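for the recovery benchmark. tokens below, seq after
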């Protein structure tokens, strides 16, 4: 059953990643922005899910695997992140490459930590 849940969540993550890429290309003419957004959104999701797991223990082990391995594994794109940086360097867009290199991990980590703290505080209000 766990494999099926991971697979379903993985497909959802991949399709979500694809749709964010289409959106960013269509409205901002930037695939790189799509990569940036999915990594930040992935940070927010992982912080919230981790907080729910540790604080309320409301996620079954299969659902945890579905979210962390399936959805987030299919959704976040650090392999695409590396490729985008290489392409920017190849196109002599060194400033953009450096910004992407620095901002994705830093803001992703801040998003994860911030959503973890926010979720914990919201859970303690109830």
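predicted aa per position
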């Amino acid at each position: 059953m766990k494999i099926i849940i991971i697979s379903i969540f993985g497909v959802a993550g991949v399709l979500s990643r694809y749709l964010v890429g289409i959106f960013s290309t269509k409205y901002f003419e930037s695939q790189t922005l799509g990569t940036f957004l999915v990594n930040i959104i992935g940070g927010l999701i992982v912080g919230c899910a981790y907080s729910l797991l540790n604080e309320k223990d409301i996620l079954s082990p299969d659902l945890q695997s579905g979210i962390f391995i399936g959805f987030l594994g299919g959704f976040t794109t650090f392999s695409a992140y590396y490729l985008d940086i290489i392409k920017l360097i190849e196109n002599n867009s060194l400033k953009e490459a450096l910004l992407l290199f620095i901002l994705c991990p830093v803001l992703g980590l801040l998003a994860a930590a911030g959503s973890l703290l926010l979720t914990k505080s919201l859970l303690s209000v109830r």
